[in-house]
Design goal:
This protein has 197 residues and is α+β, with helices and mostly antiparallel strands. It has one domain: Peptide Methionine Sulfoxide Reductase, Chain A (2-Layer Sandwich). The protein has seven helices and eight strands. The chain has a six-stranded mixed sheet with strand order 7-6-1-3-2-8. Helix 2 runs parallel beside helix 7. The model has no long low-confidence stretch (mean pLDDT 92).
Length: 197
């Protein structure tokens, strides 16, 4: 039954994308995917955010396997958005504001290759936009060099159900209060124009 539901959802999303060329997908990894998901899910123009795994070697890895570091995956979020409402550059602005792209394989106390800063692009145009944006940040904003990986998208594996919508379901959990809530507050304060009121 769950498989049928997933297939139905995927078919609907495919139909929407086929009917509307402004519907695009980008993949961001900036530490724990709970944080990335929470930061983007209420941004204007963002249709859906899905937590999962990408950039690794094993098909359909589990959270336990990814966390072990043996699969080489990163925790990432698949972000489906309407480019008429929010551009890739604006999504990049949110992404780079809400994590530290200058620390290798960690965000704060979250350490390991699966927490690396990474963007998975779909085509040459996206790659050019991302690399130009990083170049601008390196030259004008950050003192330390940006270590965000940029790679061509290959595979994305949806994470287990309990990871989806984690922040909204667990706002009183200590990690959410101490780590995720400040990121959301920062994004809404500094980039309020990109958020639903």
């Amino acid at each position: 039954m769950k498989l049928l539901s997933i297939l139905f959802t995927l078919n609907i999303m495919t139909m929407i994308a086929d009917e509307n060329p402004n519907i695009n997908t980008i993949y961001f990894g900036g530490g724990c995917f709970w944080c990335v998901e929470a930061v983007f899910e209420d941004a204007k123009g963002v249709i859906e955010v899905v937590s999962g795994y990408a950039g690794g070697e094993k098909k359909n890895p589990s959270y336990r396997e990814v966390s072990s570091g043996r699969t080489k995956h990163a925790e990432v979020c698949k972000i489906i958005y309407d480019s008429q409402e929010i551009s890739l550059e604006q999504l990049l602005e949110i992404f780079f504001l809400t994590h530290d792209p200058t620390t290798l394989n960690r965000q704060g106390n979250d350490r390991g290759e699966h927490y690396r800063s990474i963007i998975l692009f779909n085509n040459q145009l996206e790659e050019d936009i991302i690399k130009e944006y990083i170049k601008y940040l390196d030259n004008n904003i950050f003192d330390d060099k940006i270590v965000t990986k940029t790679e061509l998208f290959r595979d994305f594996y949806k994470a287990e159900d309990y990871h989806q919508g984690y922040y909204k379901l667990n706002k009183d959990q200590q990690y959410c209060k101490m780590i995720i809530s400040p990121k959301i507050s920062k994004a809404r304060e500094e980039l309020n124009k990109y958020y639903i009121k």
